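Title: Prediction job returns without error message
Component: structure pipeline
Severity: low
Priority: P3
Assignee: unassigned

Description:
Job completed but the reporter wants confirmation the result is attached to the right record. Sequence as submitted:
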Amino acid sequence: MKVEYQIFTKEVIEEQFNKILETCTSGLDHEEIMQRIHEILVNRIMPVTINDQADEQLTIWRITDPYDGFHPENKKSYVNPPSIDKNGIKCSRQRANIEGCPVFYTSIDPLTSITEMKGNLGIKKKFFVSRWKLKFIRPVILHQLVFNSQTNKNGNALKEYTQVQELKWNNALKEIPFHYQEGFNYALLKIGDLFTSPTEKLYNITSAYAHDVLYKAREKGVQIDGITYPSVENKNNSLNIAWHPDIINSGCLALEEVFECQIIEDNLKYEDQSVSISIFRKGTFINDIFSHWESPFLKILEIQWTELQLRTFNEFVLKGTEALETIILERDISVQLFLEEHIFSVAFQEILNECSNSKPKQQMLSTLQINFEQIVVLQAEHGNRIMTPSGKQCIEIFMIPIKWEKSYKAIK
């Protein structure tokens, strides 16, 4: 059977996508929607990347909100729900899946996974972040939808990545006239805009499109493992991958670690797009089988005593050796001895832990040892007086330059 494909100019493509939005209404099922899309676009070319053993392994992340029957030491608890649960309820339609046909949603970094939960996690609510390793023991085929109007802008975190992909497509089309190359790239951008629309009103179209790529194509002998697309919730600055569920047991995907966490500060809705989390424990899986739990552990490496400062409520400041040797009158001990008692206390460990949680987002769930260097501010209790040239004054704060590391130790 001969299949006709055409490449159009930008003007024609604009008309085509306007027609898709006009005619693919919510009353149509996914098969009717795709029939109209195929007719309007005169079929389409789907750009894919084929990753094989020559490519590096890929780390992907996923959030699991504990549910009835969830077991943190079982790999199955971190994968998708079945198409129909034990109560006969179908999995709901989302951006990349129709009702009753789940996909395995992941992101390429943990922050994006958290933002994709759209605020459903909540402050102090426990959840699990799972880290998976994708190994290309066979060719893994991804449909690329990384181009859209946002990733095409200067300053977008994905701009460089999309430029590299665009060069690949242009090289493949170098034998055709330039205005058709331009049309091809514009068609990719329009599909990307459609798929990453910020409104759920277009889920009827995007889910039908994804179902056609991940499920229906297999009926024709074309196996596409996943769809790569920008994260709408992370302002198109990172990538999600929606996988056909077969990837889970393909031998390509291994669950390596899980983190039991809770959000302690959420600034995802603001410009800095940050989140602070507290990690309770880390679980390690070996060959998809649970191995052991570890807890976060903080170790002080160095206290730079000569750089220490203290400040009184009257804003009198002492530094270095002079500050260390100053006597706290009510306790009759030096400032250095007083601080040494506190620095190894549980309360001070909590202060260091809070500082650790504010580490840049790309390191917040590092599985490795992380080193920190920071001036830690310790609030003094009222009543710790010292003698100054102006008489007795109470210490307000200590500013302590300190180096420490955060790692994990086995839970006995």
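Comment from assignee: result matches the submitted record. The longest helix spans residues 178-195.
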